[in-house]
Design a protein that fits this description.
- By secondary structure, the protein is mainly alpha-helical.
- It has a domain of 71 residues.
- It is 66% helix and 8% strand.
- α2 packs antiparallel against α3.
- It is rod-shaped.
Length: 122
């Protein structure tokens, strides 16, 4: 790999471009294309390090799934005044939220693994 620097255009010299070989080892770190990409990769790795259980329960079910299930049950309760229907809707909404969180986890994990396998520097 070579580096080049341009001499200032006002100077009249015999070498306007200086080229020299780079004598350092290749870094083990992959080159960063942008900070946004680095932050996205760091977030993805942090999610994966915490594990599936933490992602599904803490990240999705408790923060999103349970409030959705309670909201759906309250909506059904206001419309029908049936505790059986409300509980059934709450359980169904909770189960669907859990399944969605598991599918999202597996998709994120698989896409992360594919990206890591495609990297040229590893």
């Amino acid at each position: 790999m070579t580096e080049s620097t341009n001499a200032s255009p006002g100077l009249a010299g015999d070498a306007s471009i200086a080229i020299w070989p780079r004598r350092t080892r290749r870094s083990a770190l992959r080159p960063a294309t942008s900070r946004r990409e680095l932050y996205a990769t760091a977030r993805e790795e942090a999610r994966l390090v915490r594990g599936r259980k933490a992602f599904v329960w803490n990240g999705r079910m408790l923060s999103i799934g349970v409030p959705l299930a309670v909201g759906a049950a309250a909506f059904v309760w206001r419309r029908r005044r049936s505790s059986r229907d409300s509980v059934a809707v709450a359980l169904a909404m909770g189960a669907l939220s859990y399944l969605e969180a598991r599918v999202e986890w597996s998709m994120r994990r698989n896409s992360y693994r594919r990206r890591r396998e495609r990297r040229p520097d590893r």
